[in-house]
Amino acid sequence: xxxxxxxxxxxxxxxxxxxxxxxxxxxxxxxxxxxxxxxxxxxxxxxxxxxxxxxxxxxxxxxxxxxxxxxxxxxxxxxxxxxxxxxxxxxxxxxxxxxxxxxxxxxxxxxxxxxxxxxxxxxxxxxxxxxxxxxxxxxxxxxxxxxxxxxxxxxxxxxxxxxxxxxxxxxxxxxxxxxxxxxxxxxxxxxxxxxxxxxxxxxxxxxxxxxxxxxxxxxxxxxxxxxxxxxxxxxxxxxxxx
Amino acid sequence: xxxxxxxxxxxxxxxxxxxxxxxxxxxxxxxxxxxxxxxxxxxxxxxxxxxxxxxxxxxxxxxxxxxxxxxxxxxxxxxxxxxxxxxxxxxxxxxxxxxxxxxxxxxxxxxxxxxxxxxxxxxxxxxxxxxxxxxxxxxxxxxxxxxxxxxxxxxxxxxxxxxxxxxxxxxxxxxxxxxxxxxxxxxxxxxxxxxxxxxxxxxxxxxxxxxxxxxxxxxxxxxxxxxxxxxxxxxxxxxxxxxxxxxxxxxxxxxxxxxxxxxxxxxxxxxxxxxxxxxxxxxxxxxxxxx
Amino acid sequence: xxxxxxxxxxxxxxxxxxxxxxxxxxxxxxxxxxxxxxxxxxxxxxxxxxxxxxxxxxxxxxxxxxxxxxxxxxxxxxxxxxxxxxxxxxxxxxxxxxxxxxxxxxxxxxxxxxxxxxxxxxxxxxxxxxxxxxxxxxxxxxxxxxxxxxxxxxxxxxxxxxxxxxxxxxxxxxxxxxxxxxxxxxxxxxxxxxxxxxxxxxxxxxxxxxxxxxxxxxxxxxxxxxxxxxxxxxxxxxxxxxxxxxxxxxxxxxxxxxxxxxxxxxxxxxxxxxxxxxxxxxxxxxxxxxxxxxxxxxxxxxxxxx
Lengths: 242, 291, 306
What we know:
The structure holds three protein chains of three kinds. Chain B is mostly helical. Chain B has helices spanning 2-30, 37-55, 59-87, 91-114, 140-162, 164-174, 176-181, 186-211, 220-234, 239-259, 267-278, and strands spanning 130-133, 136-139. Chain B has a domain at 25-220. Chain B contains eleven helices and two strands, in the order H-H-H-H-E-E-H-H-H-H-H-H-H. Chain C contains 15 helices and two strands. Chains B and C meet through helix 3, helix 4, helix 9 and helix 11 of B and helix 5, helix 12 and helix 14 of C.
């Protein structure tokens, strides 16, 4: 029997009013694994990330992180215990400098002794030259990197990445894919929500396909492309609830 | 006594709907708080007073003049300050401060021009004798003011839900960015909404001598509080909510004045805080998702 | 943190020294006292508005609560001034705790609800039904504790403590965390910042400062009415002074008070309407053309403002 995975999500449910955004999702991620999360718009991918990162408490089910149920914990406590994330549209602290942005996370969100220093994070993501600039003066690709830097500065064991590839040019895409693979090679577990097939192919070990709040496929990307229901969902526009 | 309090509360509620309507329209479309709203109401009151005192104009005629004149007044104000304000990072917060400045300007000019004495128009101008409604007697002036208010609410409703520019206005209310992206002339729509909002405040002012008592240049602050209470109870930005807020506010006010008159002035504030804490989005507000 | 000490020494100490010595050469002590009071209020408001972005339109509520906390302690408990000052602080803190749920509101909702809360406190205290306790609308007289020189000194001490607090916020990690909350509470939470606790602390500190300012105000002038202690102008002045100089800095609000309150005293006393007019125009221009205050003229060029 394999050891307990780093993250195990069991029958996770979340409702907004009458709308079931998550309807019993279950999956797991191991250390060093990159799991892709794909599905039509409104299928519940971002809600899934929001629940795991503590922005919403789950209505049903459990989020087991390193064997402990952390469902419903406050986001700052989850950050300190090693779960972090990026946002679909980056949310840096606009009027603060790049260095201050990362410093805050390194100071308050430190999840382990091994968390990298601010300088190491900035260097690693190619932001060292921008350290003294205000976040609002960065371009959108740089803001995405800063969002990632803020997450990495806490030294997370699980990183949730929400559509980081959108809007990047081909060279930036390639670099981003390499960076995420490098993080996984160091033992970090990643959950990557993404639409771009090429990027998914390069980055993920395994994918989950979601539709209408539940997972309909769990396996390799190549397998997903051949799966009849997955094809129907993507081509037929069968996602419910928009 | 209870029946009288409730009935007059409903009548006042119609008027308070009008008091909040313009403020709410402007907030709904532009997400800015016109803190000078109460002072525009004051200007409307003075316009009605002078038109009556100098040339004996009937307030119903004045109300048409005020509507047109205040709308025309609102347009240049919009173009002078609002686009620049909306470009700022925290325009919602800054708008409160900016329109506080506008309020100071209006109040100062009004004090210089009109002095500080109280001005009123006798209620009999709107009709003689009390009116019997559902077994209760109410002053005619109240009924007329409430009727005009209802008419104004109906016209705003028709504008928003039955006209093309109204549809565009509602689109801007839902999402300014998306409206901009889909090619709607957001500034024209906003300017119109702003002008209508100012005109509605002026209209509320015309009838304020009958409903709120004599006009003074300093009355704006109290009017603001009532207007805020009305629109927050209903839901900021939702014109249908304003009607609900106005009626709740009117009835609650009359009940307080009948049974606990010493504490009646506390009402708008307590009601506002209570509603905000229980339902931060107002009674008709949608549940907002975080993040 | 060493930078915080340096900034306090270069910015705040000269100001405090000047205000301590000023009564020796300038006879209008009440005016000097008002300067101190507005410096305290502007910096107290800076702690909540500048660092966390909540605009406390009803900030005067804490000031009034402090003034009445002081007055009630003197009138009903025969308290001496210093214990009465403690009551002022406690009264404002208690009001702050009661109003903590307002922090769940954002933007205009918070500002309006806070204004309503301050008005409600004023209406309760000034209500004739409570005349036996608060003297209702007729105001209080505290001649038994009147001590202008001593209260002036205590006001200076409160100002010094407030300036130390702001210098600390400006330079400590906690101040940075508060600014992160202001910029984006969700992102701040993901950076590990305890958002609710952070802004509650800032809120209560800022309430305490206003309460102490209200207490020392009551002590210094010793005769006042509820509409004086709850005058909305206190909120507005504090906001505009802070905004004019530059929020989230130590120097900004100081400049705002010295320049604008100075201007007020040059033209405001004789013709209030004209002052009101100029003031209104100034506020409009400020928001439209310099929304980040005087400090932004310097920071925009890459310099740091203490």
